[in-house]
Amino acid sequence: MKFILPIITLLLFTITSTGQNVNLTEMIKLNNLGIEEFDTSVTRKGFTYKETQKNDSAESTVYKNGKGRNTSYITKAIYKTDNWEMVSYQTNDESTYLKFKTELKNLGFNYVGKNVSDDDTIMFYYKKDNLKLTLSSWLNKAEEKYTVYEISIIKDKD
Predict the structure, then answer these.
(1) pTM (whole model) above 0.85
(2) DSSP letter string over 6-73?
(3) Which of 2, 29, 50, 116 has a CA 20 to 30 Å removed from the CA of 75?
(4) How far is 27 from 22, CA to CA, in rounded Å?
(5) Contact between 91 and 140 (Cβ < 8 Å)
(6) 118 φ, ψ to 5°?
(7) Residue pLDDT, tens place only, 70-93
């Protein structure tokens, strides 16, 4: 009986934290998967299918985890005409963003430059081998005025 409470606590912690355990190494692996395997992997992490957006040159499949301001998104995009694929992860959790920054340096990604767009999105660019990585952040002005962080990994198929 004394073991039941710790087991239940551990189980609840695992269930509630499953969707938030996305890291850079895992995103690189996800980018190498086909869409069916990607679906299985992100569903196991607690994400649910949201939508697919298609046009003549690309198809993006979006999954979400959480509710309201605590919602995170993960997307697999395949660009047919440009021959590259991308996985992006979007969150408003600053600590997750900072963990990604630390991990990319540890994995040997090199800083390439930055850009600030007209809508005040700041983008930092990194590269390693055939992978390009972008860390972006912007203020979500439409809702509760909070910062959104996004990491995108692009792999050239060539």
Answers:
(1) no
(2) HHHHHHHHHHHHGGG---HHHHHHHHTS-HHHHHHHHHHTT-EEEEEEE-SSEEEEEEEESSGGG-EE
(3) 116
(4) 7
(5) no
(6) -60, -25
(7) 899 999 999 888 888 999 999 999
